[in-house]
Amino acid sequence: MFNERMQRRGEERSVIREIFEYGNARKREIGAENVFDFSLGNPSVSAPDCVQREIARLTGTMSAGKMHGYTSAAGAPEVREAVAAYIRSAFGTPMSAELVYMTCGAAASLAITLHALCESGDEFVVITPCFPEYKVFIEQAGGKVVCAQTGPDFHLDLNALDRAVGKRTKAVIVNSPNNPTGVVYGESELNGLAGLLRRKSEEKGSPVFLIADEPYRELVYGVAVPYLPNLYANTVVCYSFSKSLSLAGERIGYIAVSPACAGAQSLFAAVSGAGRSLGYVCAPVLFQRVCAKCLGQSSDVSAYRENRDLLCGGLTSFGFQCVPPDGAFYLFLKSPEPDAKAFCERAKRYELLLVPSDSFGVEGYVRISYCVAKETIARALPAFEKLSREYGL
Amino acid sequence: MFNERMQRRGEERSVIREIFEYGNARKREIGAENVFDFSLGNPSVSAPDCVQREIARLTGTMSAGKMHGYTSAAGAPEVREAVAAYIRSAFGTPMSAELVYMTCGAAASLAITLHALCESGDEFVVITPCFPEYKVFIEQAGGKVVCAQTGPDFHLDLNALDRAVGKRTKAVIVNSPNNPTGVVYGESELNGLAGLLRRKSEEKGSPVFLIADEPYRELVYGVAVPYLPNLYANTVVCYSFSKSLSLAGERIGYIAVSPACAGAQSLFAAVSGAGRSLGYVCAPVLFQRVCAKCLGQSSDVSAYRENRDLLCGGLTSFGFQCVPPDGAFYLFLKSPEPDAKAFCERAKRYELLLVPSDSFGVEGYVRISYCVAKETIARALPAFEKLSREYGL
Q1: Residue B354, SS3?
Q2: Strand runs (DSSP E) across B264-377, as ranges?
Q3: Is A366 left (phi over 0), alpha (psi -120 to 50) or beta?
Q4: Nearest 5 degrees, angle CA A251-CA A256-CA A260?
Q5: For residue A146, is pLDDT > 80?
Q6: A2/B267 Cβ within 8 A
Q7: Which of A3, A5, A59 would you mutate first to test chain B, the one with the most B CBs within 10 A?
């Protein structure tokens, strides 16, 4: 009676959100302090001061009539100009306000970009392990998902990418700092990817695009995050302020089409058409303006770094194995039994809520979102220790 | 190279937004006070005090960490409960929080609902003249648009609806108070529609749904707006706070699936799946909470009423013809020449920006959005008078 695919997607929900909802229910049952919910990438560190200050300034100085009205579909002109100016100065790369499209966050940035790019028969390459919702957005846009697995250290495997990218590939999605591994790809491996994509574009006779999914750009622990448009012309940046400014629930981000992109103007038109078609009228306007004044700022990354150190140190001391993350706030832990789902179920008995890696496109790992209070990690460690003993680690 | 449909939709843009953008450019050229922009339904009356008060209260009392984080995909539980409680008390109709899905405004409400409902081969009936973007949303969801024209007074024509609704009809969209005519459908004509849909559902062997698109519910001038779920079981309400609370740019609204709907739980799952698939993670959270405290309130409707009276009075005195609107803030004026586009071009010479009716699905009219400063109308009237003389009215 209803759209079957939509109903199925609504019933299955995202695996992550499923655990998050379970955690909320469990917290009501036994008290929030007794549930160690590592499921969701919901920033635990407060938005930086500039956010509350800008909200107060705007509500204090703009008339309520002007402040909350529609902007142009692509965003308020002064906001788009501010984003473009920031990109130019921060990354030393050309960018024009006319190619900046403000969005309702990263998911909207991706959904819109994929709808803009996808023609019948197109394939999109994702680098696994990857964010599970890529599959949903790609399929909704009419594309086919092709996976290229990373190496054992979760860095790019150019051979795997060489096999995955073919005549039907419209774009490759790159997410660095990475969800779920916390890995940041270095300039050298990204140059390797850029070279591969240039060669593949030539073979194909039309560009293979790069979608740079960058919500974690600012959340890094002392490593550089190369700006992809500087390495590869046909790049579309999908950005979100959700994580950098701890505004996940406010739904605000942008799409920046590199001016060096083949057919940049037409691609931007397709982005606008996709935003329109999917029901995005404009990005939430108060936060458009707030974010325009907080560009380049971020929440207190040192808190995430402390969490990482505490968690990695503890878990490895208990015998668990992981690659220490360079950025984002996720730890990808090797499951001590091959079936990660079984491991997660066992962890649940200690009120540890982890996400099995299957939905990220690889088996045998779990994702731990450590964007929680440091105290939660400290209190969870004994539970992890008991869990490790069950496995005789 | 890109998705052709998206590119076309981006290039054509919405006719209304096209004129709005022209108006913005023109204002920069000759000064805002010299352009009479009646194109966009951007509320001119300030958000009611409760909005700014709630923003200040929330930013003052909630921690920045808690305030801006993700909510569940369907919205914060307390917000959904507040909306359900409001619906129960304001309309005397059953509603449960579990069937309320918070959205990024009316366009998102519609896009999500259409994606949830639409199966291959489905038709959706729109009542013309109607909001032009219905076509975009229906086609994007994979449906086919079927038009049922209203009578000359822009009220429902049950014969036209009887012809339009058939075996393939999945839903009929009803928008009252109406954009672009300002007409409010009465209980008797809506009961006629409900009876027709019950008969058609029986013939078809499955329900024909009613989508109640209600962004203008509170903006009425002394007439009652019947609540459709009280008249017809299989109703989904698509609501937005954009117009009632003058928050058009903040993108906040909701979908309420009537508990009496056939398969209400499954339909809600499909709504959730559609929201997820289209990249809506959750509705903007600050405004979820703000709106939950402002339910049933509205901006100062008397200002719109004064505008209507001034505009209708002036235009009819110059010899123009229109049906005086009962609600919303649109006036649907008969074009004094058959080609409404030509009339709009002529009006442009007097800096009067009107929207030709063709995109609303009927010919020979223009839409005047009178959600502008009263002074703008007062200053535009002499221009309208000159225009009327050109036509010898």
Answers
A1: coil
A2: 330-334, 352-353, 355-356, 365-369
A3: beta
A4: 170
A5: yes
A6: yes
A7: A3
The answer for residues whose C-beta is within 8 angstroms of residue B303's C-beta and 6 or more apart is B44, B45, B374
Question: How is residue B291 written in tokens?
Answer: 């709106």
**Which of these, A218, A97, A122, A98, lies nearest to A173 by C-alpha position?**
A122
Judge if the upstream peptide bond of residue B180 is cis by omega within 30 degrees of 0: yes
Domains defined for chain A, CATH in brackets = 4-48+299-390 (3.90.1150.10), 50-292 (3.40.640.10)
CA pair distance A28, B236, nearest whole angstrom: 31
Residue B369 β-bridge partners: B330
Contacts of A277 in chain B (CB under 8 A): 5-6, 9, 111, 136-137, 140
Q: What is the pLDDT of residues B30-74, one digit of tens each?
A: 999 999 999 988 898 999 999 999 999 998 888 777 789 999 899
pTM over 0.90: yes
Tell me the residue ranges of DSSP E strands in B129-271: 144-149, 169-175, 209-213, 235-240, 253-257
Q: Give buried/exposed letters for B290-299 (b at 16+ CB in 10 A, else e).
A: bbbebbebbb
ipTM of this predicted structure: 0.95
Smallest Cβ–Cβ distance between B248 and the set A4, A68, A247 belongs to A68
- Residues of B whose CB is below 8 A from A7: 116, 266, 269-270, 273
Backbone phi and psi for residue B281, each to the nearest 5 degrees, phi listed first: -85, -45
Backbone CA torsion sign across B124, B107, A281, B368: positive
Determine the pLDDT at residue A17.
78
Helix (H, G, I), strand (E, B) or coil at A358: helix
pLDDT at residue number B66 = 77
Give one DSSP letter per residue of A27-64, joined into a string.
HHHH-GGG-EE-------SPPPHHHHHHHHHHHHHS-H
The model's pLDDT over B321-332, given as tens digits with 9 standing for 90+, comes to 999 999 999 999
Q: Report the distance separating Cα A127 and Cα A245, nearest Å.
A: 26
Cβ neighbours of B348 (radius 10 Å):
17
Euclidean distance between CA atoms A238 and A380, whole angstroms: 34
pLDDT tens per residue, range A46-70: 999 999 999 999 988 887 777 899 9
CA distance A208 to chain B (A): 10
Residues of chain A found within 8 Å of residue B272, distances taken between Cβ atoms = 9-10, 13
Backbone dihedral angles phi then psi of residue B342, each to the nearest 5 degrees: -65, -40
User: Which of B68, B104, B273 lies at the smallest CB-CB distance from A248?
Assistant: B68
Residue B89's H or E segment, with its range, is: helix B77-91
CA distance A163 to A145: 14
In chain B, what residues touch A16 (CB-CB under 8 Å)? none
> What is the Cα A320 distance to its own chain's centre?
25
